[in-house]
Specification:
The chain is mainly α. The chain has seven helices and two strands, in the order H-H-H-H-E-E-H-H-H. It has two domains: 30 residues; 122 residues, no CATH class. Strand 1 and strand 2 form a beta hairpin. Helix 4 crosses helix 7 and helix 5 crosses helix 7. It starts with a helix and ends in a 9-residue tail after the last helix.
Length: 162
């Protein structure tokens, strides 16, 4: 009896999720900025719509680095006596957007091992020197900077020539 109730609740939740996904896809298809962001490797519909909805005016940020810092994807600085020490990422800002970028970066890194992506040589060289999680955050930082550039310039993402 109780398993049937749980089964009905799961079915209801699955239907609600499906309806939300349809609404999100419809909004994405109507929004040009969201469509431009979805051209960036590692940025899907969910990340593109979340970024577009959360960042109303990208020109408030002076640079892509400032935008990445807003999302908490830059190293925390602990400097003293003229010595610069960079620590872990600051984790300031919107944790949801940061998670989406890190998950997308993980996807790019996994694909870069086999596919010929524009970022593949950069990712492979970093993976030789750094742990995979550090490279993932570095890729998320790079993606945030690309997102800022795409939103600010109003252009579609163009991968760098190899």
């Amino acid at each position: 009896m109780s398993l049937l109730v749980l089964g009905d609740q799961l079915t209801g939740l699955a239907m609600q999720i499906h309806a939300l996904e349809r609404r999100l896809l419809a909004w994405h298809r109507q929004n040009r900025e969201s469509q431009r962001l979805a051209t960036i490797p590692g940025v899907g519909i969910i990340t593109a719509t979340a970024m577009t909805a959360s960042v109303a005016d990208p020109s408030l940020f002076r640079s892509g680095r400032e935008f990445a810092a807003f999302l908490g994807l830059v190293p925390r600085q602990n400097s003293s006596g003229g010595k610069d020490k960079l620590g872990r990422i600051s984790k300031k800002g919107d944790g949801y957007l940061r998670k989406l970028l890190v998950v997308g970066a993980t996807s790019v890194i996994r694909r870069s091992r086999t596919d010929d992506l524009a970022a593949a040589p950069w990712v492979r060289s970093l993976l030789e020197r750094r742990p995979a999680r550090v490279v993932t955050v570095a890729m998320a930082n790079k993606t945030a900077r690309i997102i800022w550039a795409v939103l600010t310039r109003g252009e579609v993402y163009r991968p760098a020539a190899a």
